[in-house]
Design brief:
The complex is a heterodimer.
Chain A: H1 5-23, H2 28-48, H3 61-87, E1 96-101, H4 107-119, E2 123-128, E3 132-137, H5 140-147, H6 150-154
Antiparallel strand pairs in A: 1-3, 2-3
Helix pairs in contact in A: 1-2
Chain B: H1 2-28, H2 32-58, H3 62-91
Helix pairs in contact in B: 1-2, 2-3
The chains are: A mainly alpha, B mainly alpha.
């Protein structure tokens, strides 16, 4: 077994909470049916051997939450910048395409980083491999901000992998 | 309750304005890649504002939980979709219109 038992338990709790939230039925029959379907799903997932650190990174939940707060702030700041550029008359953008060297070690962290780049307006990741991420940026300022590594440092490292 | 109503409509109105701003951006920016950035506004802040406003309308209930789930789904899917579009365009050979002033200088160079 590649993953700890707490992954299975936390997946079960999450799925059951999702079921409760989606159905809203609280009588005994419905809840027991929901519980049964949760157990079946977890059993099937376990048999398929797909509850690993990559598909379900339960060990970094708190780190991810902290990163999402950071990302929310970045997204708002980037939005304001792009909106200013949209309404600025004349030449308002200076598009860049460049390769950014990556220092993150695991696939999961790299994907989180590339998705965070795409999520903030003003920068879009167009290609991702082991060593570099290709980024299209709307302005030289956005490109320089990525080069400063501020966002790369905030991405949680998947320490349990490898 | 009028207070919550007011804040809720403030969020929804901001979201609508952001959507319009994104639309104007799509028309003003010159090529496919820069338009993706304008779409990014409607994908992120505009959608978030709408969903927060609607959450305030419904109050604490199953419906607001479902709105939250929609937000989480958008949060994961919209950057993935944007990345897939940009990647397909680049592999398909669509050349981006780059800034002449910095073209070739920014590539692989670390500004101080």
């Amino acid at each position: 077994m590649k993953y700890p038992v707490k992954h299975i338990i936390s997946l079960g709790v999450l799925l059951f909470a999702l079921w409760l939230g989606l159905s809203g039925q609280l009588n005994a029959l419905m809840v027991s049916l929901g519980l049964a379907s949760t157990i079946v799903i977890v059993a099937i997932t376990h048999r398929m051997d797909t509850i690993d650190n990559e598909t379900y990174p339960a060990h970094m939940n708190l780190l991810l939450l902290r990163f999402w707060l950071f990302l929310a702030r970045e997204v708002i700041v980037a939005n304001i910048d792009v909106i200013k550029r949209i309404f600025r008359p004349g030449k308002n953008i200076s598009p860049q395409l460049f390769e950014l060297p990556l220092t993150l070690k695991t696939d999961l962290s790299r994907v989180i980083y590339a998705n965070a780049i795409t999520m903030t307006p003003g920068t879009v990741s167009t290609n991702l491999d082991k060593k570099t991420v290709t980024v299209h940026a709307l302005s030289i300022e956005a490109a320089q901000d990525l080069y400063s590594g501020r966002m790369a440092n905030a991405v949680p490292e998947d320490y349990e992998d490898e | 309750m009028i207070f919550i109503e007011l804040i809720s409509w403030l969020f929804i109105a901001t979201g609508a304005l952001l959507g319009i701003a994104g639309g104007i951006g799509i028309h003003r920016f010159p090529d496919f890649y820069s338009r993706l950035h304008a779409v990014g506004i409607t994908d992120t802040l505009c959608a978030a504002m709408f969903l927060i406003g609607l959450c305030l309308q419904t109050g604490v209930s199953i419906a607001s939980l479902k709105l939250l789930l929609i937000f989480i789904f958008l949060f994961f899917s919209s950057p993935t979709a944007t990345h897939a579009l940009a990647n397909a365009a680049l592999l398909g050979g669509l050349k981006p219109e780059l800034d002449e002033e910095y073209h070739g200088h920014c590539f692989d160079r670390r500004p101080d």
